Amino acid sequence: MAFYDNYVSRRITGVGYSLKKKLNVKFYEKSLVDFNKKGLKILEVGVGRGLFAEKCILEGNDYTGIEPNLNMYNELISKKLNIIQTSCPPIPFDDNTFDFVFCGYLLDSLPDPLTAYNMIEECKRVLKPGGRISVACHDFMKLGKEFFNIGYMNNFVTTKRRIMQIFFDAGIVYNRSYFFTGVFFNFLRHLINIFWFFYRYEVYMTIGKLIREKRSVDRRTFKIRASFAPGIMVIGNKKNE
User: Fold this and answer.
1) Which 3 state secondary structure label does DSSP give 233?
2) Chain-centre distance of CA 162, in angstroms?
3) What is the pLDDT of residues 38-92, one digit of tens each?
4) Which of 105, 111, 132 minimizes the C-alpha distance to 47?
5) What letter does residue 57 receive in the DSSP assignment?
6) Does pTM top 0.70 for this prediction?
7) Do residues 101 and 88 lie in contact, with contact meaning Cβ atoms separated by under 8 Å?
8) Where are the extended beta strands (E) located within the chain?
9) Domains in the chain, please, with CATH?
């Protein structure tokens, strides 16, 4: 077994797959809503199950992905996706290669702020002048302790402000940002966030204690909590040189 194999081997339900697919479609659409180009050269760092890749290819783009996990890589190439198996940073491409770089749930899995900065710096390097970068992460400000409970790979605390600060230091021009919960970017996310306001880790563990089913409550509600975890997407551009 290797790093991230627990995610690769995790069973995903039909409902879970549908939610993740819809979320990745929205990532694509919202990232490029004002970026009116066809046939983009796109790089995704941290491909996961390949749902963002499917949307990129469906829209007629030239897609390349980077995936560090060998088992996930093997699964992805079996789908005929253009994937490179390596860890980042650095990113193994020349300067000014891509029109758009997407990092979905990548920054929060990095070990420290310096690595996060180096990752964004590398993304900027491989972007063409005027190119677009989009970063989607868990929102620590909403999740609290649950940020770390979702997966042991969540190390670097991600918030909108912290990502914007990295963008600034890396020379990325901030464009806009979105908050989302599950697949919802609209007012429905506010309703779900009420649940998150009250349903903190301490609360459901207390409920578990009272009914003497602490482990059961945690296990049975985990997939729901993970599927509707609050997130942030921050979008920027490389300066035109």
Assistant:
1) strand
2) 15
3) 799 999 999 989 999 999 999 999 999 999 989 899 999 999 999 999 999 999 9
4) 105
5) H
6) yes
7) no
8) 41-45, 62-66, 83-84, 98-104, 127-138, 172-181, 230-238
9) 5-182+229-238 (3.40.50.150)
